[in-house]
């Protein structure tokens, strides 16, 4: 840094007198005139003390300073402004409270005192501090035009307010020599001073031109107040040095943009706010009793620093936007071209008024479009491209597009010399920048659009490198469900897949080691649809392509499914080609699990449910609601009708259905294969074709066989149950249940508790009916019915056919009662078997002391007895008794006959008028009411001996008479 030259003029100049200021102490600034003319500090209005709580933005907002700072982030940072004036009170809060490196006032020189401490002191001092505060005050409540600039204080007035024109010249020379001496170069000079002059031409005493020219040629902007003497001259013109061609003359305007009545003017000036401008003042104005005060002042001296600060912002904007060799002319052209125009009634001329927002807007332009439709095209991208852009305003977004030449992944990497924290997105996507990087998948031939914006304010430069890399994702193809077990993740794994149907895409991730997260992207739009660490779901259309990205470090199991959809009230659940498991619960909400995925829907959203197991060995389990529901099962098909929804399930090998407590009815149909059913109270288990069926809590079960090989077993309850047969089937009912079976080849009904009754009828076929102490069997070539363990069984012949009945006793004392066509056997343990209406019956007592009581069939009946059998027959009807120890027969006075045969020496025959009694081996027969008796004896030791011994006729008196 050079020191000021000692070779300066020794002449003094008078400074235009200020109007009197209302302060605690002080007096008007006055100087002695010399022959070169007068030079003064251009201030014209009284100085009024005000509270520091009132902000300076009132004046600043006359041309939108706050909006500029908010919108563009411009503050003049990186530049230094030289204030040639009465010095700067750098200890004021507006300037950071210090002097030198590290403070806003970085340096300067006192040309009045000849030292390096250019403090704004002395009774007359305040002007330089006020001007400097307008340029760049950093006080939060009283910011200057360019609060980011550094300041240099060049003092050209002494403590008494006297100055020399030579000192101003030395200050200008000092600026040129030291323009690069500080951290930030001097780019602007402010001269709020001038001599008594009013012209568009230079005065004869203009001695600053050489130095002003040097500064101009060095690119430094020189803002000079034009003077406050318009009322004196009443004609266009400006003071000096404002009249110099090397400077920018600045006039003053009021709050409405009109020229101030005191401001000098000509067609070169640019006007800026100069009335009642609030800025910093030194505390010595108040005799040290107050610090950090801000006062208002008026004059072109206040307008010039506004333009000086504005020039710093314009220079900053131009350089940010890449303009080179920015100088005073470049800046002034922007200011003038975008200025407002105001008409002066006094001079009849038009003058330009500073419009800084418009000037900056003309520079800080959006270089890459401001919406998706205006996106800047990068053309066809095959490998890489670079973009150099700017964020000029807080709301600025840049939009770009490109067409991918191959399928793969696009990676955008952003670097910024200004520390931009990027944000933005893809078109039709919520994918955003992560840090300063954005990655998305692309398909060959498709156009993609992306935007760039800022998270940390405006005024940023950036460079984006766009790189297109080949597709490295694992292609899973068309997916219903895919599991990837023990996947190793180090950074990122990608999987590409296509949906098999419309509905949900669900992903489960289970971290085995480390931690991973999953993300799903729509490949068409590159939109990230969902992310999470364990479960995510997204909606999809059939045939839609997606990318599954797994991030992190470790090992994980991945489960991806496209199995469930809900559309227009229809819930569809799809199986896979593998072994599926679907558990469905409609007891309250619609809750179900599919191959490890759980889903839940409100019942009012679902009115129809379809489940398709497709291939594999599939399992379906359903828990119904508490309503009354109807279940219909056919091979590979299940139908449920409920009050709130209908249900259809198909292609399941294993099926479990549980009623929820209502009066549920199930209809179960067999297949063409040999099916096996087991039905109990409210339950059914069956193997039907390839299906395993299990029903519980069913009030009514109707089972239907389909073929001559189907089997069904029906179980009773602990209570008193009733079995009845009907055409081709049976009905079995008890407390709380009703089960029926029809169309089965073999029906087995088992009674195990309670007092159970069976009322059975024959079939239309030739039946063989066997009734014993444990079961009753009705068998023909087409069907078998077995009733086991019933306490009372009745079999009735109704449908015809040549039926045979075999009644078999127990080892105990059984009793047979025959009356007409009814045969009743009361077994030793109390059970009763009864056969009614059959033409032929065989009774075998088996063991014990069994007895039989027979009532005659009527005329023409015959009782035949020998050691092996007792047969009682009439016409087509007959009963045969085997192993019955006591037989009592009453022919009911019919014209019938008794035949006893095979008498041996051990047999006995006793005849009375009322009856014939015979003992044939272990059988004792008592017959009465018959018309004829024949007896034949056979030698017990010789074969085939037979003779009629007696032939009696029953006469009117009831006595036996010999036949004549």
Secondary structure layout:
Layout: E1 39-41, E2 48-50, H1 57-60, H2 65-72, E3 80-85, E4 105-110, H3 127-136, E5 150-155, H4 165-177, E6 186-191, E7 193-199, H5 209-217, E8 221-225, H6 230-233, E9 238-240, E10 248-253, E11 270-273, E12 277-281, E13 293-297, H7 300-320, H8 328-337, E14 340-344, E15 349-353, H9 356-363, E16 376-381, E17 384-391, E18 398-404, E19 408-415, E20 422-423, E21 437-442, E22 447-454, E23 460-470, E24 474-479, E25 481-499, E26 503-522, E27 527-532, E28 535-540, E29 545-567, E30 570-574, E31 581-585, E32 590-594, E33 597-601, E34 608-612, E35 619-623, E36 630-634, E37 637-641, E38 646-650, E39 654-658, E40 665-669, E41 676-680, E42 683-688, E43 691-696, E44 700-704, E45 711-715, E46 722-726, E47 729-734, E48 737-742, E49 746-750, E50 757-761, E51 768-771, E52 775-779, E53 784-788, E54 792-796, E55 804-808, E56 815-819, E57 822-826, E58 832-836, E59 840-844, E60 851-855, E61 862-865, E62 870-874, E63 877-882, E64 886-903, E65 908-911, E66 915-920, E67 923-937, E68 948-954, E69 960-962
Parallel strand pairs: 3-5, 3-6, 4-5, 6-8, 8-10, 10-11, 11-15, 16-18, 24-25, 30-34, 31-35, 34-38, 35-39, 36-40, 39-43, 40-44, 41-45, 44-48, 45-49, 46-50, 49-53, 50-54, 51-55, 54-58, 55-59, 56-60, 59-63, 60-64, 61-64, 64-67
Antiparallel strand pairs: 1-7, 2-13, 7-9, 12-13, 14-15, 17-23, 18-22, 19-21, 19-23, 20-22, 25-29, 26-27, 26-28, 26-29, 29-30, 31-32, 32-33, 36-37, 37-38, 41-42, 42-43, 46-47, 47-48, 51-52, 52-53, 56-57, 57-58, 61-62, 62-63, 65-66, 66-67, 67-68, 68-69
Helix pairs in contact: 3-7, 4-5, 7-8, 7-9, 8-9
